[in-house]
Amino acid sequence: QVPDPGVIKCNREDLLLENVWVEDGSTIGIAVFGDTMDNVTLRNVTTIRNGLMGIQAEKANNLILDNVLVRYNNHQHFLFGQSSGGVKITRSRPVTIKNSTISDNIGPGLWFDQSCYDMRVSGCDIQNNTGAGFTIENCATGVLVDCLITGNGTKGVHILGANSCQVWNCTLDDDYETFVVQHD
Asked: Which of 137, 101, 144, 102 is nearest to 119 (CA)?
């Protein structure tokens, strides 16, 4: 059900989810949320063809996504104005995403929103999502480095109402709009 999302729900601290494959869930593949979830790591995780979204996290402090594959999500075509697509992370600090692929989702690829702080994304392929590939919205202190961001439907990199964000050594190509910075 949409109000109770997640084929796998991570709602404990100090959690390692490793070598897991989630496929064809009705809404969200993996949900990380609770009052405050500290020290959650997803390593070697695949989440594909879920109805709404691949991974959602909220209040997930010290969250690490390492070598995750998030692909073909939102196959039920939910609207992506609020949440859908690949990965959405809200109200979390710090967050590290590395060596991961977020591609071919219907909607946004990777989206940070609602006061995330200290986001570090490196060595990721973010490609062919129908929405924006990479978004930082109403957050602060984000770094995007050594990533391939191509073929996304609306924007490659979208920085919206965020401050102290850096983009280094990334390849951006064939996105509808390549790099957009807006005040919210």
From this structure: 144
